[in-house]
Each structure stands twice: as C-alpha cells, then as structure tokens.
Amino acid sequence: MDKPVILITGTSKGIGKALVAHYVALGHHVIGCSRNAVEWKIEGAQGNYQHYIADVTDEVAVKAMFSDIRKQYGRLDHLINNAGIASMNHSMLTPLTTVHQVLGTNVVGTFLFCRESAKLMQKKRYGRIINFATVATPLKLEGEAIYAASKAAVITLTQIMAKEFGEYGITVNAIGPTPVQTDLIKSVPKDKIDSLLNRQAIKRFGQFHDISNVIDFFLKKESDFVTGQVIFLGGI
Amino acid sequence: MEQKIIGIILHEVSELNEQLDHKVAIENGENAGLYGLTGVLDSLGLVTLIVAVEQAIEDELGLAISLADERAMSQKNSPFRTIGTLADYIVKVSQEEA
User: Fold this and answer.
1) pLDDT of A1
2) What does the record list as GO biological process (chain A) (predicted)?
3) The CATH number of B2-97 is which of 1.20.120, 1.10.1200, 1.10.860, 1.10.287?
4) Do the beta carbons of residue A6 and residue A215 sit within 8 Å?
5) Cα nearest neighbour of A164 on chain B
C-alpha cells in the first residue's frame, strides 16, 4: 500500500496534536481538522500534514472537506475521530446549551465523519475507523452524565457501524481512555480525578503512548477481523 | 442534462455489475430495474450505487447532492426503481438545489 492517508479530527491540541506527530513520524500522510488554525509546528510535518478548518458538526464544511480529500487522494485509509468536548457538572446544573454542544461534537460529529469516511473507503473495500469512548461510561461517573451519555452513543454507533460497514472491508472500533493530562480535564477537581484513578486496576493517568498503542493495533492491516470492539485503558 | 445523468448512472451501474452475481440489465437502458420489485440490487448494492452516483455527479457536473434523504426513502414510488426513475429524481433534486 502507498503511504496511508489518515484523517484525524481535533488536531489543534492535546491528543489530536500528539497523534499528528505520531503518524507523521510513521510516514503516513496526515490530514487534520479543527475549528481553528493550528498554532504548532511538528518536525517533519511539512508536506505530510494538511490542515482543514472545520467544525465537525457543520455538514456543509465537512462534506466539502471530504470532497477535497477525494479529489486530492482518491481514497482515505484511516479515520481517527478524536474531536470531543467534555462537561463536568451535576445534571441539575448543566445548561441545555452545554448538552447540545457535547452531543453535537461527540455524537453528531462522530457520526458525520464515520458516514463520509465510509463513503470514501468503500470504493477501495478497505478502511479503519477509530472512535473515542471514555471510561466515564462504564464507570457511570457522577458529574459526567451528558459526557458519559454522549460517549455511550459513540459506543453504540461504533458497534452498529461495524456491522453496516463490515461488508465493505471497513472496521470500526473505539478506544476508551482513562484521564490523560490534557485541557479536557483541566477543570476537574483533583479529588475527583484521584477517586477515578483509584477505580482503575492500574492507578495512574493515561499517557499518549497508551492511546497510540491501541490505535496502532486497530489500524494494522492484520486487524481486519477486529471490529465493533471497545478497548478501555487502565483496567476498569 | 437528463441524458448526461443517465450516462453517468449507466457507467456506475456497469462498474457495480462487475461485483454482482445478479447483474442489472443495463441493455434495457432507462427501464433497467435497480431496486424493489423489478430490481436486482439488495440494500448493500443500492447503498454502493447511490454513493458512487453522488460522487460521479459531483465530479462531472459539479453538483453536491444527497440522494438518500428522508423524502426519497418515504416516497410511495421509490426513485430507485429503475435507471430512468433515478435519473428523473436526480434532475429534480439538482434543480431544487441549484
């Protein structure tokens, strides 16, 4: 296979940015997107990284981006649906605008990118889609009702799309990270994080390499019989 | 425009036929059955064809259209019955979106 073409959402910071550096280093052609232009520079990324400014919930912008990818590359091998937003608050104190934002980015955005990617991947009868779940869903964490519910929806999307896309040679899997020290959790009180880490078999923060290790496994050509699965980190 | 669209559909159907055991009878032209009572495509075949036709319409006519919306799915007479009904439906959708 030529240099794999990989699309990663939410690449302006955190895990998305680290994934760009990881796959550029592995020699993939990396396409990223986020609501804003990226402010970072990754060594070796020049010529191997292309950035689109798009909100993952904006169907017109997303379809235009996929149309452009199709015209430029004629295919897409991998999608990593990393873009996501969290909300840590008691349900009684969660504004509906927050509910719409979380569901929009985490559920609608994931659905839209899966749908458009599958349209591109099906032509080559090959594709790997990786979605992002969270340990907050199986742990049923208080204060994360809408975030955990949105990721429960992502798990269901993953499992059903795995069945729908299987005929086309496309696998769909999800990774459920533990807390990783990124902006996503910066507003969560320390005692909450400690209590969460204590519920894991291995009581530490997740590291970027824990995440990339699982994604690398899902992306392998040899993983063509692995689909509809969710791997939670940390042992929960 | 309709003749151009029919040509695009015929081309995409003939590519799809290469993967099918039961092939669409493209020699029947516009009357060739696609999906439903007189068609030979199963739901996966129809999905593949719709995606291919949408992409080809965009490439050749510069029109970004969605063929499988609620309206198409809920019509009493499905627009996916034959090559001709699909072409009529594409013309209609294109004119509405222009």
Assistant:
1) 56
2) bile acid metabolic process; fatty acid biosynthetic process
3) 1.10.1200
4) no
5) B44
The set of catalytic residues of A is: 147
Q: Which two tokens stand for residue B4?
A: 């151009």
The stretches of chain B forming alpha helices (DSSP H) are 2-17, 43-61, 70-74, 83-97
Which residues of B fall within a CB distance of 8 Å from A123? 51-52
* Chain B residue with the nearest C-alpha to that of A165: B44
Tens digit of each residue's pLDDT (9 = 90 or more) over A142-190 = 899 999 999 999 999 999 999 999 999 999 999 999 988 877 677 778 8
Which of A67, A122, A167 comes nearest B58 by C-beta?
Answer: A67
Domains of chain A, by residue range, sit at 5-232
Contact at CB, A122 and B51, closer than 8 angstroms: yes
Phi, psi of A202 (to 5 degrees): -115, 110
Q: pLDDT, tens digit, for every residue of A55-98?
A: 999 999 999 999 999 999 999 999 999 999 988 889 999 999 99
Is 3.40.50.720 the CATH number for A5-232? yes
Residues of B with CB under 8 A from a CB of A: 44, 48, 51-52, 54-55, 58-59, 64
